[in-house]
Amino acid sequence: MAEDFFSPRNIIVTGGCGFIGSNFVHYVYDNHPDVHVTVLDALTYAGNLENIRGILGDRVEFVHGDICDAELLDRLVPGHDAIVHYAAESHNDNSIANPEPFLRTNVEGTYRLLEAARKYGVRYHHVSTDEVYGDLALDDPARFTEETPYRPSSPYSSTKASSDLLVRAWHRTFGVRMTISNCSNNYGPFQHVEKFIPRQITNILEGQRPKLYGDGLNVRDWIHTEDHSSAVWTILTRGRLGETYLIGADGERNNLTVLRDILTVMGRDPDDFDWVKDRPGHDRRYAIDATKLRRELGWTPSHTDFQAGIRGTIDWYVNNRAWWEPAKAATEAKYKRQGQ
Ligand code: NAD
Ligand code: DAU
């Protein structure tokens, strides 16, 4: 059984100007009016203050800063009762091109936050990924569980795995009150155009052909980002200390199917795309078994109709061109240099 509810009143959300972090800040703002959120974000290429501008005020405050800055954390953390840690370098392809920022932000940044949580007795929730478990074969009936051994493949996923291990060590050795969640692939509004689904939608909107890596049969386990937010809130407030929970919504689909869905919804020929060079070390399949989260904490996803979720996401990119257009040309130029 889960322990008594934890009722945070004043939380720090790192990376709250990124894709999933900003969706979480909106989720807390919309559903928990008694909670104050301090967003700590360095506004890297992936962070955009516009994601939360409409809700900045008494209940949501923004601090521009780096999670590796220990002095800033000393000033910021006291007085808060929880840190929810989303900030990261998050894109696999970038980690292959240049791993260094991944080591700094994902490993050192997590270390700095853990030290602050330890020093000021603040509860800590660590947002991580299913990629720490490596990949599964397409014909393997298995799915990832909390017991699956760590076997990360990319520089990105190995830094996330490292950060998970630091969190566990800080719990066992120093008693930091923590929980960890490992979630599958998110989709929804505010996702950077470098990622698979927004890249293809915005390519089509710009009259460019979508780009599919390898044979297109790699499987991802898609979850709407709002369901990720509700799961993180559930784990933060009801999860058992020291525990890891996997988050997923039974959304396995291969990339070719997802791309053809997008093309069809947008009124294009489902074969109107380019096959491009594969990602080195490309994980074949991810699949989450979220039984522990569902049974122990009673969480269920709301967005169970993937087609409806994709239509909503396409509408968001159609209606928010000013949000994504500034990043599009540089992102595609980078992919072009990589042959992708
Ligand atoms: P994102 O790249 O969209 O956003 C990352 C945010 O972190 C940005 O706002 C950026 O400015 C900020 N940031 C980066 N370095 C920082 C630093 N040193 N100090 C302060 N802020 C910094 O990432 P995302 O896709 O929203 O992912 C958020 C978290 O969720 C990550 O920890 C990621 O590993 C995890 N996750 C992502 C997915 C997914 O499908 N995208 C799935 C599971 C878990
Ligand atoms: O599983 C969770 C992870 O999901 C998170 O930890 C990562 O932060 C997040 O970026 C995501 O990682 P992926 O590498 O799975 O996501 P990405 O959007 O980069 O790619 C999804 C799939 O689509 C993958 O199999 C590669 C493929 N792809 C990607 C791009 C950008 C293409 O075929 N074409 C593309 O243009």
UniProtKB/TrEMBL annotation:
SUPFAM superfamilies listed in its UniProt record: NAD(P)-binding Rossmann-fold domains (SSF51735)
Reaction catalysed by this enzyme: dTDP-alpha-D-glucose = dTDP-4-dehydro-6-deoxy-alpha-D-glucose + H2O
Pfam families tied to this protein: GDP_Man_Dehyd (PF16363)
CDD domains, per database record: dTDP_GD_SDR_e
EC number(s) stated in the UniProt entry for this protein: 4.2.1.46
Keyword vocabulary terms for this entry: Lyase, NAD
Superkingdom per UniProt: Bacteria
Start and end residues of each NAD(P)-binding domain: 12-311
Keyword Lyase applies: yes
GO terms of biological process kind: nucleotide-sugar metabolic process
Keyword Zinc among record annotations: no
Top EC class of this enzyme: lyase
InterPro entries, sorted: dTDP_Gluc_deHydtase (IPR005888), NAD(P)-bd_dom (IPR016040), NAD(P)-bd_dom_sf (IPR036291)
GO MF terms held by the record: dTDP-glucose 4,6-dehydratase activity
Cofactor(s) of this protein: NAD(+)
Spans traversing the lipid bilayer: none
PANTHER family: DTDP-D-GLUCOSE 4,6-DEHYDRATASE-RELATED
Entry's family note: Belongs to the NAD(P)-dependent epimerase/dehydratase family. dTDP-glucose dehydratase subfamily.
Protein name: dTDP-glucose 4,6-dehydratase
Native species: Bifidobacterium samirii
